[in-house]
Amino acid sequence: MKMKLAFAGFAGSIFTALVIGSAASAATCTINSVSFTLVASSAATCVAGNDLGNNGIVANDLAFFGLTGWGIGDSTDASAGDGSVTFGTDVPIVNASSGLWSVASYNGYNPLMIVLKSGPQFAAFLLTEAISGLSGRWNISEQKCNRNGCRDTPKALSHASVYYNGAPAPVPLPTAGLLLLGALGGLAALRRKRRSA
């Protein structure tokens, strides 16, 4: 029995290492005793805020990370997102306090920003090294104190969004495409030469 538990723990550790990756970094932001943590495969920095009375987060009005021009690509709120950037199979689950996240397609946009929201508090995480397969873990907790001391308790996610900024990186034409165009041009020239002869 101990061997099975040890193997299950070992397998879980390997799965976690594969999901998060060897170069994972974590960023944590705290506001009003609520802590948001995002573990990412690329470097992440964060800012936290409170949108109570603002009728939602307006990324361009707040100039997150000194940037304007943010577009919302995807959100767990079905009414938001233009599809330019999308969550992958690991979509943050509403009403959960932790889980996995991934971005399936980012279409060359760099940087990206993931926003986690719980009640009026939110944290925005800047991902500056957008690469295919962006993924990691997220967690939200709240520190509650009483006469016996303080402890962290899970706090539910109300929704998560992924934003993009700037223009998408141009998609380079592969060398094979250039060779194909050259070959077609050569065939057209050969055909023209045969007709004139």
What does this structure look like?
There is one protein chain. By secondary structure, the chain is α+β, with helices and mostly antiparallel strands. It contains 3 helices and 11 strands. Strands 1, 2, 5, 6, 9 and 10 form a 6-stranded antiparallel sheet that branches. A hairpin with a 2-residue loop joins β1 and β2 (34-40). The longest helix is centred in the C-terminal third of the chain and has 22 residues, at 175-196. It is elongated and about 100 Å long. The termini are far apart. The model is unreliable at 1-22 (pLDDT under 50).
Write the layout of secondary structure elements.
Layout: H1 2-20, E1 25-31, E2 34-40, E3 44-50, H2 59-62, E4 71-75, E5 86-87, E6 98-105, E7 112-118, E8 121-127, E9 135-146, E10 149-154, E11 159-164, H3 175-196
Antiparallel strand pairs: 1-2, 2-9, 3-8, 4-11, 5-6, 6-9, 7-8, 7-11, 9-10
